[in-house]
Here is the input.
Amino acid sequence: MSSFTGENKNYICYDENETQLMNVIDDKFRKEALSLGAVEYHIPAMIDQDVLSKCGYFSSFPQHLTLAAHAKRNAYQQIAENKCICEKTAIVARSYFTPAACLHIYPMLENQDFTHKVITTKARVYRYENEQFDGFTRFWDFTVREIVFVGNIDYVVKCIENIKSKTWDYIKEIGLPGEIHSATDSFYPSKRNSVKQKFQLSNSLKHELSVKIDERVVAIVSFNFHDTHFSKPFHFDKTGSIVTGCVGYGLERWVAALKYYNIKI
Here is the structure.
């Protein structure tokens, strides 16, 4: 494997061959999004605390969050001498590293008037997962091709099923073994979140396309229906008639799967 992974397995660096493979995969699903009428957005690496709060992220996934911090102005000399920044020499900001690409999009739709919309973006996202990093399929930061669907329930469900079908056809075409199954988000353990998980499963709100890599089942795509979870707090729900859904392709995991099964594309 020609990529480079840090000692803590938190991140990975790709050479030109793996970078090209990632770009081919991304371009495939970017074009699928554009064929559905998507417009492209560019999002930043950091997200504001108020946006995360409005999205309900603190109560659902606090374990994933990575704080942004910066050096104290009066601590530069200490930092230079110690060659690091620590709690005593840092100030925690009201910003966090983006844990999910779609979270930037909903504030941009606030108070807009439309019947339906498809948005796609390629972004780095950051999720801390209890140090379960393996240097191959699970990292602190990774790359996602995200597609967000906005409209009435029929429109959003139809779009998700359409892209799900196209993705399934593609993995069969290239010979990548996988399966699509019901799934739940990895909520922070609480009574309220346990109810959320049961609700997701019973209403088939989330599906994943997974492959087996080194005896581990790894999700490479997630298909999510949000209902009015985002459209309502950001005031584009039109009294409940506008909902959202999203599809996310984990690009490093696609590279890992294709290399594991020695599939050329």
